[in-house]
């Protein structure tokens, strides 16, 4: 069962930052998802990003496999490589993807892979430039998130979370036509994101759904519709831990809708050594911390390892 949903719109450039922070808080408590508008990235940048992404996924499989995801979690992953929902009965999710990581700042550093300049001359520059832009938006958003948690707006900067952050860009392509053996399989099976916040853009093809009550027996899935030019932002597990479950890391999935679909996710995640532990503003005598402190890098590596473990 699914129904349509109107997620809140957050204006990143609002001059009333206190009001924007209040709206973020409400959105993160109620949905764990919202749209982000007035972020300053122009339409042309997204157009170019999707154009170059499509060029890569249109290469022959053997060319793409030359850039297969390496030990530093950068590069190409073919269809079925990843299973986001461990209870899935299929070999793996339908999407193919490409990861680009930070140039420095984790112990997985400087291992990005790039298609050759001869085959895709503007590819690397397009991706590097988008990475910079979306990271800047992510940092601006995180300062509002700090305000939303009654913290100094530079809180996460001051604890070093975004000094050389471990943030990854992921280009995703979902197939159109399916083999009969894939009926019932998902583009991306049900999961919550691992990190702090995700900033997603899509080509407008439907398929993304969220489930707000992940623990209920009969799950209600709601469609997230496309808003032109807006990021779809969602809270990840690390922010849920930081906030002691005040902010929700909401379960989501992508249906196979019989139509090709492209999206680009930016996982805006902290520094490798950043320790994520319950914020003082989120616990008290009646609500003690639910999770022990965890190092960001350890958490992310474990979650990535699990979703790529072959069955
Ligand atoms: O492609 C989408 O709409 C969502 C992708 C996603 O959930 C993810 O990569 O974590
Ligand atoms: Fe996700």
UniProtKB/TrEMBL annotation:
<dbReference type="Pfam" id="PF14226">
    <property type="entry name" value="DIOX_N"/>
</dbReference>
<dbReference type="GO" id="GO:0051213">
    <property type="term" value="F:dioxygenase activity"/>
</dbReference>
<dbReference type="GO" id="GO:0046872">
    <property type="term" value="F:metal ion binding"/>
</dbReference>
<dbReference type="Pfam" id="PF03171">
    <property type="entry name" value="2OG-FeII_Oxy"/>
</dbReference>
<keyword id="KW-0560">Oxidoreductase</keyword>
<protein>
    <submittedName>
        <fullName>2-oxoglutarate-Fe(II) type oxidoreductase hxnY isoform X1</fullName>
    </submittedName>
</protein>
<dbReference type="InterPro" id="IPR005123">
    <property type="entry name" value="Oxoglu/Fe-dep_dioxygenase_dom"/>
</dbReference>
<feature type="domain" description="Fe2OG dioxygenase">
    <location>
        <begin position="164"/>
        <end position="270"/>
    </location>
</feature>
<dbReference type="InterPro" id="IPR027443">
    <property type="entry name" value="IPNS-like_sf"/>
</dbReference>
<keyword id="KW-0408">Iron</keyword>
<dbReference type="InterPro" id="IPR026992">
    <property type="entry name" value="DIOX_N"/>
</dbReference>
<dbReference type="InterPro" id="IPR044861">
    <property type="entry name" value="IPNS-like_FE2OG_OXY"/>
</dbReference>
<comment type="similarity">
    <text>Belongs to the iron/ascorbate-dependent oxidoreductase family.</text>
</comment>
<keyword id="KW-0479">Metal-binding</keyword>
